[in-house]
Amino acid sequence: MAAPVLRRAVLRSGRALGAGPGRRSLLSAAYVDSSKWEKRQKEEHNLADLAHLMDRTYERKLPVSSLTIARFVDNISSREEVDQAEYYLYKFRHSPNCWYLRDWTIHSWIRQCLKYGAQDKALYTLKNKVQYGIFPDNFTFNILLDYFIKQKKYEDAMSVVTEIMLQESFDELSTQLLSLYVLYQYLATKSDHAWEEERNLGASLVLASLKQNSTVGFSSQLYGYAFLGKVELNKGLRAVYNLMPLMWTPGYLNRALQVMEIVASLSGDSKICKEAIDALETILQSVLEAKPGPDSAEEVKGLEQKSQSAESEETEQSKAPEYYSRFKFKPSGA
Amino acid sequence: MARKKLHRPIAAMAKKIREYRALKERPRDSQRFALDYETMRRPLTQKRLPVRAWEDVRNENRLFALLCRLPRFGVGRTVTRKSWLWAHDEPCYWVITKVKADYTAEDMDHGRAWGYLTFRGKTEEEVREIDKVMYHDWRMVPKHEEEAFKKFTPVPEETVRFLPYPPLLRAMILAQWQKEGKPITEEPVIDLQKVLATPRERAKKKATGTPV
Question: How much is the pTM?
Answer without folding.
Answer: 0.78
